[in-house]
Design a protein that fits this description.
Layout: H1 2-78, H2 80-85, H3 137-203, H4 207-219, E1 231-236, E2 241-248, H5 251-254, E3 258-264, E4 269-274, H6 277-302, E5 310-317, E6 319-320, E7 327-328, E8 331-338, H7 339-342, H8 352-358, E9 362-363, H9 407-423, H10 447-450, H11 462-471, H12 480-491
Parallel strand pairs: 2-5
Antiparallel strand pairs: 1-2, 3-4, 5-8, 6-7, 8-9
Helix pairs in contact: 3-4, 6-8, 9-11, 9-12
């Protein structure tokens, strides 16, 4: 009775302990799962923070790289003059000679001889000991051997013929190859001869060769991207004066409009830092000045033979006039300097803008705004079809200003010039290939000239008029009153003496 009464209680106690243990295990697993969940959340949050930090760092590095690129562009523009000082601008004529690239002879399959056929290739398989016991087998085999021998002999004849044709084709291919090689060498020899003749012409001071040589010098000059590097050159041998028109890039083309870039983390964006307009203008002015001085330096340095005494350089830009929408070519700088003056400069330490002022250059007050200057010499007046009868270019700015003459004196001058011209027998004979020109510059006005339109009024030296009449079509522009005097002078009878007034 006692055993029956206490047994259920023991079972209930064991089941309760198991249930409690199970619940405790569930709670432990739940706590462990919660810990794992929170750890995973912390890990994901850390990963997200790291990703955001890495993204921000990458974007900031990108902004810094973009800024470094802009700064490198600006540094290249600021070092335009310094970059050429470490380069020898002299052009060795021998370096212009390029050795011909002769391709190798490639006959292909023609170079491979066909192997001679062997007798074994044609002979039947020898009879085995058992086959020899078969009646008639030996005779059939001997007949097959005889046929194979005949075929073999014919194959040898055909092989010899094929080899003869192959060798003939190979010889023809080699002949054509050697002809092509000779043509390549002949072209190279002719080109080298042209270069030698070019060198002799340059050393002789022939204007075309001088112009070509200094064009090569300017073409070889290495500038940053977007520099046009186009130019026009003329040479006056009598005065040893080189006239150069050099195209400059516009400010919009080469000056970065941004001074840098900044990463804004809040918006995850890279903002441009605009360059102040004053910096753009100053940097472009610096580029114009450096390019001008650099071009003068390269030309004088390349002239080891002392063929140049003076260089007249004018820099211009090709752009569109925003007011008219039409192409314009305003000059931004013009300078005339001699070798003796220029070689005294220490270009490693000069300020380019101050240097140009020291050379009495005329520089635009605001090149970025394309404010033009009047070139010292109008290149359009340099006409290579006419000879240099008198050294007009070499004596610019050294003779009386035509605009300072009174209308009466101007009329007298023109009359006397036509008097001398008429006394000659025809036009002067044209010879050679030098350049003749008349340069018109506004240096002053007389009271008579001030009464005419400023737009049409230009000036020249009075001796230039004779050169223009004798050497080229009379293309100068003079005030209306002076031109009326010229028309009147042309209608007057010949004067008897050069110094007389009408």
């Amino acid at each position: 009775m006692t055993r029956v009464r206490y047994e259920p209680v023991a079972r209930r106690s064991s089941s309760g302990a198991l249930l409690a243990q199970y619940q405790r295990e569930l709670a432990r697993q739940a706590r462990a799962a919660e810990r794992e969940r929170k750890a995973l959340q912390r890990e994901l949050a850390a990963r997200e923070r790291d990703a955001k930090r890495e993204h921000a760092e990458a974007r900031a590095a990108q902004a810094e790289e973009m800024t470094a690129d802009v700064e490198a562009e600006v540094a290249a523009l600021q070092g335009i003059l310094a970059a050429t000082l470490i380069v020898d601008d002299f052009v060795d004529f021998q370096t212009l000679k390029v050795e011909p690239d002769i391709p190798p002879f490639q006959p292909g399959a023609l170079a491979v001889a066909e192997p001679m056929p062997t007798e074994a290739e044609f002979m039947p398989v020898p009879l085995s000991a058992f086959a020899k016991l078969i009646p008639g087998a030996r005779g059939k085999h001997e007949h097959a051997v005889a046929e194979a021998a005949a075929v073999y002999e014919q194959a040898k004849v055909e092989h010899v013929e094929r080899e003869r044709l192959r060798e003939a084709e190979l010889a023809e291919a080699r002949r054509r190859y050697e002809e092509d090689v000779e043509k390549i060498k002949a072209r190279a020899t002719a080109k080298h001869k042209e270069i030698d003749e070019f060198q002799l012409s340059f050393e002789a001071g022939e204007p075309e060769a001088v112009v070509e040589y200094f064009s090569i010098v300017l073409d070889a000059s290495s500038y940053p991207d977007d520099f046009p590097k186009r130019h026009k050159i003329a040479f006056v041998p009598e005065s040893k004066q080189l006239v150069v028109e050099y195209e400059l890039p516009t400010a919009e083309l080469i000056v970065p409009t941004d001074r840098g870039y900044r990463y804004v983390k809040a918006r995850d964006a890279i903002d441009e830092l605009p360059r102040p307009a004053a910096q753009i203008k100053a940097l472009y002015m610096h580029v114009v000045a450096q390019t001008t001085i650099r071009t003068l330096h390269e030309l004088f340095e390349a002239d080891r033979g002392g063929r140049l005494e003076t260089i007249v350089l004018s820099g211009y830009v090709q752009t569109i006039d925003p007011a008219t929408g039409k192409p314009i070519s305003p000059h931004l700088v013009t300078v005339r300097t001699s070798r003796d003056v220029f070689i005294q400069l220490d270009l490693e330490h000069v300020d380019p803008i101050a240097c140009l002022k020291g050379l009495n250059a005329s520089v635009s007050k605001s090149p970025a705004e394309l404010l033009p200057v009047r070139p010292i010499l109008d290149f359009d007046m340099v006409d290579p079809r006419f000879v240099q009868e008198s050294d007009v270019l070499g004596t610019l700015d050294q003779r009386p200003n035509l605009m300072e003459l009174s209308p009466k004196d101007f009329e007298s001058l023109i009359t006397n010039l036509f008097e001398r011209w008429a006394s000659r027998r025809g036009r002067p004979k044209l010879h050679g290939t030098a350049v003749s020109t008349v340069s018109l510059t506004t240096n002053g006005r007389s009271s008579a000239a001030r009464s005419s339109s400023r737009r049409n009024a230009t000036s020249t030296q009075w001796e230039s008029v004779q050169s223009a009449i004798c050497s080229a079509p009379f293309r100068t522009k003079v005030p209306r009153r002076a031109f009326s005097s010229l028309q009147a002078a042309m209608e007057r009878p010949r004067m008897s003496s050069l110094g007389a007034s009408p």
